[in-house]
Write a structure and sequence with these properties.
With 593 residues, this protein is of the alpha+beta class. Helix content is 44%, strand content 15%. Among the domains are: 88 residues, no CATH class; 37 residues; 109 residues, Ribonuclease H-like superfamily/Ribonuclease H (Nucleotidyltransferase, domain 5, 2-Layer Sandwich), CATH 3.30.420.10. The strands form four sheets. Strands 1, 2, 5, 6 and 7 form a five-stranded mixed beta sheet that branches. α1 crosses α3, α6 crosses α16 and α18 runs antiparallel to α19. The structure holds zinc ion. The site of zinc ion has 8 residues, from loops.
Length: 593
């Protein structure tokens, strides 16, 4: 047999040599010949030297110098001389180069898997031809699914959290080794029953860091009663802030007034505000404010300020305490609307026109009109807020409208009259809304009639600081606040109840930060003695999870790494265009590139 060539550019396993090479601008075709004198029968494991025949097998390999590499393997078939063996003839195996029946070499397979782990299958399919490889998305997904799970390791400090497979519908659990920062497993559910079997295979766990989900708490106490549970400090503070926000919703009249900068101006000024709002927390604050100003209807009233506040304060506390969380939220929302209703009436009685009232308190004229024309406060109809999914009343008339529109009839009142004759029972405003959209597609018309009057520059408006913004002021350390925020805080603290809650909130955050577990009991007692419904509810929550919260006040472990992995998982899901099944997601999470 002739001496086979070997090349540093194309390393081959022992017993293989390079034959002929064909080269085109994009591809290298290399003949690879096996030189092993014998082969091992896969049926019985006995070596045979009796060659039956030879055939060619095409295998793709890793690219070389930007060219695709195709190996043309000359493989032999052997007779198995072992009589009882069911294999009479077998093909020689080349396990170091390629797996039986595979179309890609081992090393190309590994590279494709690495690409598949780092990018989505669709992206990989488009990317690989540029790298001198080729793979179809479904094939790559099949390769990824063959990656075995990592070997079981010992865990001492476990981080556990849930993640959404389909938000609002299906949730899973992620388990992290906090000491190494490596993900351990993904589970298909977030119930105690789903987590317990996994926990029972790791009796060596000593510390479990978790958020405040009761399912995980229950699972750990049942399976690992010896383990210390640590509640996550971030979630504790967030939980406190949620309760503070509810409390401040009730105390809206005690919140300071702030200049209401229009959104357009605000976005234009972000650069300029950069210095004042340089730290992260104030950015969070200003962002919260921006969101609030879009969504929240806040009272600008001077008339209802300060003195009239007690309407929703101390007297109602026992009543509030009996309500569930949802009922309390509903009640707060109704109180807000009622305050605005009264404000509208007061302004109306002062002789102010509806248009002016609407402008003054940032409310639509329609609602002002509705308030003023109602004899009593118009309550929300049950089930309101849920948009009806019925078909629009306008739908049967759209074809006719379109025809008339195209014929040049663009006057809403005319069209309204016409379709009414055809049986339309909806409102003119609905029609006006639809025509308004159609009108935007018309070419601009020159304005008729007298020129517009020049508008006066709007005077700076004021609104109350939102409860969300104010709740941040209560938990952030004073040193992190801007000067304006400090003034706002001082203004809030003029109210005795707010001051007491502020002091307690600051103490709680400090206690967590500086790990003063011994101060927890006294804090809980004082917070309860305050008789603020929301704070009492927070204290009750802590009492239910006392040991874990106490551990949070002393432990060095935090669930930050777990939260980070949940974020990474969300990224991986989006990278796969949100179509990741759990098995694939698990492979991608556990085998990070
Ligand atoms: Zn055999």
């Amino acid at each position: 047999m002739m001496a086979m060539e070997r090349s540093p550019f194309l390393p081959l396993p022992q017993g293989m040599g390079i034959g002929q090479i064909e080269m085109t601008p994009t591809q290298l075709t290399v003949e690879v010949i096996s030189t092993q004198p014998s082969a091992c029968c896969p049926g019985c494991g006995i070596h045979s030297e009796s060659v039956h025949c030879q055939y060619q097998r095409t295998v793709h390999d890793v690219p070389c110098g930007g060219r695709k590499v195709v190996l043309r393997l000359c493989v032999r078939k052997f007779f198995c001389r072992n009589a009882p063996c069911p294999c009479k003839v077998f093909a020689e195996r080349l396990p170091d180069l390629v797996q039986p029946w595979a179309r890609v070499s081992n090393r190309l397979l590994e590279e494709l898997k690495a690409i598949g782990l780092a990018a989505s299958a669709e992206v990989s399919e488009r990317l690989t031809p540029r790298l001198g490889m080729k793979v179809k998305a479904p094939t790559l997904l099949r390769y990824l699914r063959t990656i075995p799970p990592p070997a079981k390791t010992n865990v001492t400090v476990l981080g556990i959290d849930d993640f959404a497979l389909r938000p609002g519908d299906t949730y899973g659990t992620i388990l992290i080794n906090i000491e190494t920062g490596k993900p351990l497993d993904l589970l298909p559910d977030r119930t105690a029953e789903a987590v317990m079997p996994w926990l029972s295979t790791h009796p060596e766990i000593q510390v479990v860091s978790r958020d405040r989900a009761s399912a995980f708490a229950e699972a750990v106490s049942r399976v690992l009663p010896h383990a210390t549970q640590v509640a996550d400090r971030y979630h504790l503070v967030q939980n406190l802030r949620d309760h503070l926000q509810q409390f401040l919703d009730r105390k809206r009249t005690c919140l300071p007034e702030v200049e209401d900068i229009p959104l357009t101006e605000r976005s234009g000024n972000t650069q300029g505000l950069g210095d004042a709002h340089s730290d992260q927390t104030s950015t969070v604050l200003s962002r919260a404010e921006a969101v609030d100003s879009q969504t929240e209807e806040t009272s600008q009233s001077e008339a209802l300020g300060g003195a009239e506040a007690p309407k929703t304060t101390m007297k109602q506390e026992p009543e509030l305490a009996c309500l569930t969380y949802a009922e309390r939220k509903k009640k707060i929302s109704r109180d807000k609307r009622y305050a605005r209703y009264e404000h509208v009436l007061a302004l109306h009685q002062a002789g102010i026109g509806q248009r002016a009232i609407a402008r003054e308190i940032h409310m639509s004229r329609r609602i002002v009109h509705r308030y003023l024309s109602a004899e009593i406060f118009p309550e929300r109809a049950p089930g309101s807020g849920v948009r009806s999914r019925g078909r629009s009343k306008l739908a049967p008339h759209l074809a006719y409208l379109q025809e008339r529109w195209n014929a040049g009839e663009h006057t809403c009142s005319h069209l309204f009259r016409e379709i009414k004759q055809h049986g339309y029972s909806g409102s003119e405003s609905l029609l006006r809304h639809v025509l308004g959209e159609w009108r935007t597609e018309l070419p601009p018309q020159p304005r008729q009639g007298p020129p517009r009057k020049q508008r006066l520059a709007p005077k700076p408006r004021k609104r109350r600081l939102s409860s969300r913004g104010a709740s941040f002021l209560m938990i952030l350390p004073p040193s992190k606040l801007t000067k304006v925020q400090q003034q706002q805080g001082a203004q809030m603290n003029r109210n005795e109840e707010l001051r007491a809650v502020y002091t307690l909130s600051q103490e709680f955050v400090r206690m967590l930060k500086e790990r003063h577990a011994e101060a927890l009991d006294s804090w809980l007692k004082r917070a309860k003695a305050c008789h603020v419904t929301e704070l009492t509810s927070f204290v009750n929550g802590i009492r239910r999870d006392y040991a874990a919260v106490r551990a949070a006040c002393s432990s060095e472990w935090s669930n930050g790494i777990t939260e980070g992995h949940v974020n990474r998982l969300k990224f991986l899901k989006r990278q796969m265009f949100g179509r990741a099944h759990l098995d694939l997601l698990r492979v991608k999470v556990l085998h990070a590139v």
